[in-house]
Give the backbone structure.
Amino acid sequence: MNKCLMCGREIKMKLTLKWLFSMQPLRDPVICQNCMESFSKIDLRSICPGCGRQQKERRLCQDCQRWLKMGEKNLLKNRAMFVYDAVMKEYMQRYKFSGDYQWRLIFQEQFTNFIKQNSQQNYLYVAIPVDQQTFNTRGFNQVEGLLQDIKLSPLLEFQATQGHVKQSTKTRKARMETGQPFKYKGARKLDGENIILLDDIYTTGRTLYHAKHILEAQGAGSIYSLTLAR
């Protein structure tokens, strides 16, 4: 019997008729139902159409209105699975910042299914990269760890810079003022190919829009984003 990664309690599996007739292999759960229900799932019927923020009404939030005022012609139309609240921050602290790679399994299957359900055919999947220093310390890209059977196109990489400061340590103002951290590493121009950017969290959107601008400069067509949390 497995123990929940979050609370440590033993997980009691319930075999449903739906699973029995699905012909899917039995997967050992890594999180109990109580802990999973502690995450706030976003209701896509009432979100900001520009960034996926959970709202009472389906209208552009102030963040997205600000992007338009800054000259952004096409918003990312981000979609996310969960609200970035205290519970999700605790998860990210353990998985992303403390580097507990096993915790990727909590959302790996769900996030992969979410991506497939919210994707269009013939789009390239591009995961937001991590800088070399972070990768050397943590040992993995937290976005790629959340993916299962998703074919990625490695079109972006961090520019080599001295004293790179992580976005997570910055104030909102400092995040928005961050310079372009990425460079293009594709073998050719994109010639109108459509892109879906994948990231773990959408906060201000600064990182995702930096990625979008690099890909647009290389001739990309439509660019959207999907994230685990917003």
Notes: The chain has a mean pLDDT of 92. The longest strand covers residues 194-201. Strands lie at 79-82, 123-127, 156-158, 182-184, 194-201, 223-229. The chain has nine helices and six strands.
